[in-house]
Amino acid sequence: MNKKYVFLLIILGFASLSIKSQTISLQAFGPNFPNPTNMSNAGDDRLFIVDQEGYIRILKPNGTTPSYPFLDIESRVNNQEASWEAGLLGLTFHPNYSSNGYFYVFYVNLANTHTVVSRFTVSSGNPDVADPNSELIILNIPLYFGNTHFGGDLHFDDNGYLYISTGDDGTTEGDTGNFSQNLNSLKGKILRIDVDNPASGKNYGTPNSNPFKNDGDPNTLEEIWSIGLRNPAKFSFDSLNGDFWVADVGHTAWEEVNKDLGNNGNINYGWPCYEANTTFNNDTPVSCPSNSSLDFPINTYGHFEPDGIYRCAIIGGYRYRGSNQSNLVGKYFFADWCSNEIFILTESGGSWTREHYQPSIGIQRWTSFGEGNNKELYVIGNSGGSGQVYKIVQETLSTGADEFVKFNIIPNPSNNGLVSLDFPNTVLLKDINIYNLQGQKIASKLETNTSKSYNLDLGYLSSGIYIIETISNKGEKSLNKLIIK
């Protein structure tokens, strides 16, 4: 499909969203952490904060943290990767952690030659300290390029199986090693293993229901659960129904949210044949299957959507299943690493709409979401090497917030560029922006008037299709399409 028309379709979908800035608010919780990359809970009221440099620290329910780390494996971890993607990345606790003390981590080794999944054990005498000498290596996956796209998340499902996300070990040129579509590679995948029933010669086994375990093909790997991912740095399970959610970091244009309803596995998410919904590489050496065999995302966003905000890398999250924020139940939260935004997906009638929340706490590099034992949600921001945990809480919308709705452009099409933006109610605008179909802002007008109608002279624009964006003094946005003949 022509890229111009793809962009137009995305814009028109984007224009139908209700973008509000007061759906949620963030409450800072606990002290600062140097370089947090992930968060987990052990079935109690503590939160465990993963640090890129090779530490895990405990955040207690009163907001304090011990002066010593829960785990220190800094000497084993590559934390100097220029891309910021290496280091200690993932943590999850065994379902029977309270009795066996086992937890699992994902890290890039010091030599930057392997990604490692290991089991550690908590110390017998202190629940706030783990034994660094208890490491049992579960998986040791070689890196051929070793620069980016490590994946790195870990979670157990309700059956006690361990899921692991792996990146394609690629470069900025795509899936350089042709790993994601290759069933003889563990990269660019979701893996599912059984750590409680190890097979001969391994520290783990694989469930018989894994799609490639008993397929009769000696070239396929039995650990694989799903394929076709680029850099699935974060994934989660819906604690209500077991649905599998994975956010895959895109290449240069698109970010995507994927959902495996019921977590049935054996899904091909499409990379590198597709980046989100857009054809990426159908040429050799990649052998791309038919579209009917691929699973496309439920939500995507572009790096250059028509609002002047640059986005670059999705940070996957959770569907809220707590009990303290009634207005948030069932919503899926995720973020972008570059834009400072937190996104909220809401389902209605089988379709999903997206809200954008731009917090007023300064520039953050969102690195992870986390779920407490009570299913309350947290998000970690990192600003200049100083990370902060925030609790996500609902915010009551102010009176009249829903009155800022889509405006009409009259006349549309316009022969001379003289148009009026007409709202159903009186609004106070802060800005009016004009974008072309490439997402470039080509004009901006500062507004301080309160009116139901705003007149624009766009006679200097050439014939074509443009997007008009209005921003109220409350930060509420609305978009519409203008055609100039």
Structure notes:
Helix content is 4%, strand content 42%. By secondary structure, it is mainly beta. Strands 27, 28, 29, 30, 31 and 32 form a six-stranded antiparallel sheet that branches. β22 and β23 form a beta hairpin. The longest helix has 13 residues. It is globular, with a radius of gyration of 24 Å. The N terminus is likely disordered.
Structural features:
mainly beta, 4-stranded antiparallel beta sheet, 2 helices, about 40% strand
Can you tell me the overall shape? globular
Q: Terminal Cα separation, in Å?
A: 24 Å
- Structural category is mainly beta
Radius of gyration over C-alpha positions, nearest whole angstrom: 24 Å
Helix content: under 10%
How confident is the prediction overall: mean pLDDT? Answer: 88
Strand element count? 32
Runs in which pLDDT lies below 50 for 5 or more consecutive residues are: 1-22, 397-403
Helical stretch tally:
2
The largest sheet is: 6 strands, antiparallel
Determine the strand fraction and express it as a percent band: 35-45%
What would you call the quaternary organization?
single chain
Q: Short description, anyone?
A:
With 485 residues, this protein is mostly beta strands.
Topology overview:
Blueprint (H helix, E strand, L loop, with lengths): L2 H13 L8 E10 L2 E6 L5 E5 L3 E5 L11 E2 L15 E6 L3 H4 L1 E7 L5 E9 L7 E13 L8 E6 L5 E5 L22 E5 L30 E3 L7 E4 L6 E5 L5 E7 L13 E2 L2 E2 L19 E4 L11 E6 L12 E5 L5 E7 L2 E7 L7 E7 L5 E7 L2 E9 L13 E3 L7 E18 L5 E6 L3 E8 L6 E9 L4 E8 L1
Antiparallel strand pairs: 1-26, 2-3, 3-4, 4-5, 6-7, 7-8, 8-9, 10-11, 11-12, 12-13, 14-15, 15-16, 16-19, 17-18, 20-21, 21-22, 22-23, 24-25, 25-26, 27-28, 28-29, 28-30, 28-31, 31-32
